[in-house]
Structures are given as C-alpha cells and as structure tokens.
C-alpha cells in the first residue's frame, strides 16, 4: 500500500508597486543586424533618462536603430491564508 502525502500552500499577494527601498534597473541591448544582433549592452542603469542617453550615443556611433529594453523592479510578496 502506498502512502498519501498532502501539501498545503499559502496564497500570496504580490503588490503591484515596486519596493520603495530598492531602485529599479533598466537595460538595453542593441538587436540591430542582418546576420546576427550587434549585442552591445548598456549594462544596468538606474534611470530611464540614462538609458535613453546610452541608446542615443550608441545610435550616433553606429546608426543602429533597434534595441531590446528590459526594466526590472523588486516587488514584495505577502503571504496570505493557508489552503
């Protein structure tokens, strides 16, 4: 005879706003290219304006026009009731 195992899980609420104690990070990667992407990256910056300046500078140097932008924020998960 087999044994039965029960697991209980908690409901979690994730707040939509970012954690006020951490800074968001922004990153851009140049994806311009026919055969392959350029791949130049801004690295992590902490303001949208700083990211725009990096994109503008890279575009001015290379004439590349396509970028993938990523925004990361730390959010809080709050445990709720067990179910």
Automatic annotation (TrEMBL):
Q: One Pfam match, by short name? A: DUF7848
Query: Where in this chain does the record put each DUF7848 domain?
Result: 1-82
Say which domain of life the source belongs to: Bacteria
Identify the InterPro entries for this entry. Answer: DUF7848
Q: What is the designated name of this protein?
A: DUF7848 domain-containing protein
Source species: Streptomyces orinoci (Streptoverticillium orinoci)
């Amino acid at each position: 005879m087999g044994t039965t195992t029960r697991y209980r899980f908690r409901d979690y609420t994730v707040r939509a706003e970012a954690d006020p104690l951490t800074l968001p990070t922004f990153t851009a990667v140049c994806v311009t290219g026919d055969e392959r992407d350029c791949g130049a990256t801004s690295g992590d910056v902490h303001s949208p304006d700083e990211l725009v300046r990096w994109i503008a500078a890279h575009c001015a140097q290379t004439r590349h026009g396509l970028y993938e932008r990523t925004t990361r924020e730390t959010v809080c998960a709050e445990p709720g009731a067990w179910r």
